[in-house]
Amino acid sequence: MIKYILKYWYFAVLASLFMVFEVLVDLYQPRMMARIVDEGILGLGSGGVPQQDIIISTGIWMLVIVLAGCLCGILSGVFTNLFSQNYSNDVRKLCFKKILGFSFTQNDRFSVGSLITRTTGDITQVQNMWAQIIRGSVRCGMFFVAGSIALVSLTSDFGMVILVALPLILLEVILVFWKTGPLFDRLQQSIDVMNTRVQESVKGLRVVKAYVQEEKESREFAEANRRQTDIQFRVLLIIASMHPVMNIILNLAVAAVIHLGAVRVQAGEMAPGNIMAAVTYLSQILNGMMMLVMIFQSITRGLASEKRIREVIRETPAVKDGNLVAGDSSGRIVFHNVRFRYPEQQADVLSDISLTVNPGETLAVIGATGSGKSSLINLIPRFYDATDGYVEVDGKDVREYTLESLRSRVSVVLQKSELFGGTIRENIAMGSPDAGNEDIARAVRTAQAEDFILRQPKGYDTPVVQGGMSLSGGQRQRIAIARALVRKSEILILDDSTSALDFKTESKLMDALKKDYAGVTKIIVALRIASIRNADRIAVLENGRIIACDTHENLMRSCPSYIDIYTSQLKNEEEMS
Predict the structure, then answer these.
(1) Which part of the chain is the ABC transmembrane type-1 domain (predicted)?
(2) Residues 80-107: pLDDT tens digits?
């Protein structure tokens, strides 16, 4: 992240320079006010006769430099925002790119709510921290150094006031920093939980309503909200308790300066206007110290957020990119003694998987729930990597390919059909942005989606909202299949992605795939034998092992597990009819 700070260093330098000019203007004003009082009003140096010309000329000069100071302050703010906004923009893009490269396991470990918070709220906190550092540190530092010099130049007695007040202020800054640091870290974590609760509730709103779980969801949200509020309250209580103490120190210091100044004036050692200047300088110095507290508060929260951002950026991808760029592909897939288990789990999900899928072949995979069907096909596009053994595509270990070139050869339709905001056409063309209307129409016809799309008010240009919730499950599945087909990949994987289709539509879809995409290697994961009985071969998975792989007819003669599945499904169909 340092490189993004250095990338925009010139904005930070310009912001600091203009802030220096603004502070110099602020520091010069007490001198001019003292001159107006001493020479203009009291007439010191002119026999006690007020000098109207000094009042007017000094007042005009004050107005000019105040306007100049305002301009410098505006420019400082502009360049500060340019620095912090550009920095946060780059870091946000880096985080998002990193998240897109995460494996499914890494996404689950961080949680969606946490990743949202880290790419939005946390980056905003770091952005605010840098804005405070650039503007606040320069302003605070100059007020303290230059203000102290100016104050002591009036009389050395005023230096004693600073020496007493400063340690008290620094002590409070340290205490606030020490107390709030851990709380800010916990606060961001509580925001993660809140975001996750909201995201889950909104995404599953139909289920919540269907099962009348509004009260339960409200209670869980209220509990998460209470925990966040408690932490926030503790932080604000610590910060709020700081201000009265700071004001007491400031007021006592001002009283001390006025007392010391009055003694000097009575002794004829100081002009009355200098007391006014001294009080102003002291206020600037101590206000600068109070500003330091706010800077440290911002730094404390910013560092907690930066730590969370670094956790994302420094996360090593579980699936590492290869170097080989895929050339012409035939779509041949080979599993070599593959064993797979999910991270942080003890038991293997897949064991001793050795399987060859020839180019253009249709291989179906069937088995009970939890038998490892989805895990098997997830190894081909490298959503996960095999624990032992390896998977080949066109004679090369999939780990040798770049992820982009490998996944461009493999089109996958997952169990849950995810659609995105936009139109139906845009969702289908997502698989191939350069696809023409004829390519899209061909994929839609094969996916048996043409009829319902053309019945929509705007056809292909019908908006898709809320992840396609306005469409039925079967319609979403068919659009997702069309999206995969339009890519024209050599390998097509359907992971139980026709489960929401009726038998007639599903049969038409399978026939169209066999006819229109005969040269494409197809792997179809299914729960219903009726969906895949015409496949070239059917692999039967049981407890993570392939116990048989043959045609439907041969399996009906030789595989008891397959026969049991067929018999149970046939019995269910008869009972339903």
Answers:
(1) 13-301
(2) 999 999 999 999 999 898 888 887 778 7
What is the C-alpha to C-alpha distance for residues 415 and 565, in angstroms, rounded to an integer?
Answer: 20
Specify whether the CB–CB gap between 341 and 348 falls below 8 A.
Answer: yes
Closest CA to 380 of 361, 352, 403, 364: 403
Instruction: Read off the pLDDT band of 50 (50, 70, 90).
Output: low
The torsion angle over the Cα atoms of residues 544, 109, 311 and 378, rounded to 10 degrees, is 40
Last residue of a domain, one of 444, 461, 488: 488
The pLDDT, as a whole number, for residue 278 is 80
Of the CA atoms within 13 Å of residue 521, those in its CB half-sphere come to: 18
Q: Is 391 exposed, middle or buried (0-12, 13-18, 19+ CB in 10 A)?
A: buried
Is residue 176 a contact partner of residue 242, using CB atoms and an 8 Å limit? yes
Query: Per-residue pLDDT averaged across 161-166, rounded?
Result: 80
Q: Are the C-beta atoms of 180 and 303 separated by less than 8 Å?
A: no
Whether 318 maps to a domain, the answer reads: no
pTM of the model: 0.71
d(C-alpha 517, C-alpha 35), whole Å = 92
Same domain, yes or no: 361 and 475: no
Same domain, 420 and 405: no
Decide: 161 and 255 in contact? Cβ < 8 Å: no
* 9 and 105 within one domain: yes
Residues 206 and 253 in one domain: yes
* 356 and 211 inside one domain: no
Same domain as 100, residue 17: yes
Q: Which helix (H) or strand (E) holds 338?
A: strand 333-340
Q: Which amino acid is at 527?
A: L
Average pLDDT over residues 474-488: 91
Average pLDDT over the chain reads 84
pLDDT value at position 44? 65
Q: Which amino acid is at 379?
A: L
Is the residue at 319 inside a domain? no
* Mean pLDDT, residues 469-473 taken together: 82
Do 526 and 440 fall within a single domain? no
Domain boundary residue among 313, 339, 366?
313
Domain span at 121: 2-313
Number of domains comprising the chain = 3
Cβ neighbourhood burial of 111 (10 Å; 0-12, 13-18, 19+): middle
pLDDT value at residue 351 = 93
Whether the pLDDT of residue 577 is over 50: the answer is no
Which of 309 and 287 is assigned the larger pLDDT?
309
